[in-house]
């Protein structure tokens, strides 16, 4: 496995990755697609945490692959149209059992997190949980069964 050293002793991207993986109930080895414009710090943090398969996708560009992931993490979109594109791409990649997380505090929707929920429902996703402090929404494919613990 590739050893990627942290560039700073205080690693805010690493702490964010730890929070997201915990809220998604995924192991550190999960495959993750990070969707957004400024994703490099998160990709590096995911690799430092042991994710063997990470990729970055831009919401405004067609991806060259369609590989399935355990988690699609939408972190930085520039418009409501990009959010809709990112949610559709996330839904396609996560299949029947993956999770989609939207960092809502960075969302450009004028009507807030309820608009994110509505757009996710249009993409075939149901809300699993909401982290009010972080403004983060977690989704699963509509109609899928909750994961057994």
Task: Write out key terms for the chains shown.
149 residues, alpha/beta, six-stranded mixed β-sheet, 4 helices, 6 strands, disordered N terminus
Write structural notes for this entry.
With 149 residues, this protein is of the alpha/beta class. The two termini are 29 Å apart. The chain is built from four helices and six strands; from the N terminus they run αβαββαβαββ. Helix 1 (12-23) crosses helix 2.
The fraction of residues assigned to DSSP E strands is 15-25%
Number of strands: 6
Secondary structure class reads alpha/beta
Radius of gyration: 14 Å
State the helicity in percent bands.
Answer: 25-40%
Given as residue ranges, the uncertain stretches (5+ residues, pLDDT < 50) are 1-9
Mean pLDDT: 82
Q: How many distinct helices?
A: 4
Order of helices and strands: HEHEEHEHEE
- Anisotropy-based shape: globular
Strand and helix map with partners:
Elements: H1 12-23, E1 32-36, H2 40-48, E2 54-57, E3 71-76, H3 80-94, E4 99-103, H4 113-122, E5 125-131, E6 136-141
Parallel strand pairs: 1-2, 1-3, 3-4
Antiparallel strand pairs: 4-6, 5-6
Helix pairs in contact: 1-2
Brief overview:
This protein has 149 residues and is α/β, with parallel strands linked by helices. 31% of the residues lie in helices and 22% in strands. It contains 4 helices and 6 strands.
């Amino acid at each position: 496995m590739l050893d990627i050293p942290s560039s700073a002793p205080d690693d805010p991207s690493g702490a964010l990755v730890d929070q997201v993986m915990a809220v998604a109930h995924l192991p550190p080895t999960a495959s993750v697609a990070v969707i957004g414009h400024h994703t490099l710090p998160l990709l590096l943090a995911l690799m430092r945490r042991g994710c063997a398969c990470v990729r970055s996708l831009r919401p405004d560009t067609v991806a060259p692959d369609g590989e399935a992931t355990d988690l699609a993490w939408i972190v930085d979109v520039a418009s409501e149209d990009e959010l809709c594109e990112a949610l559709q791409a996330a839904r396609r990649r996560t299949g029947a059992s993956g999770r989609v997380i939207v960092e809502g505090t960075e969302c450009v929707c004028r009507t807030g997190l309820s608009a994110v929920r509505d757009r996710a429902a249009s993409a075939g996703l149901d809300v699993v949980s909401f982290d009010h402090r972080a403004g983060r929404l977690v989704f699963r494919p509509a109609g899928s069964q909750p994961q057994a613990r």
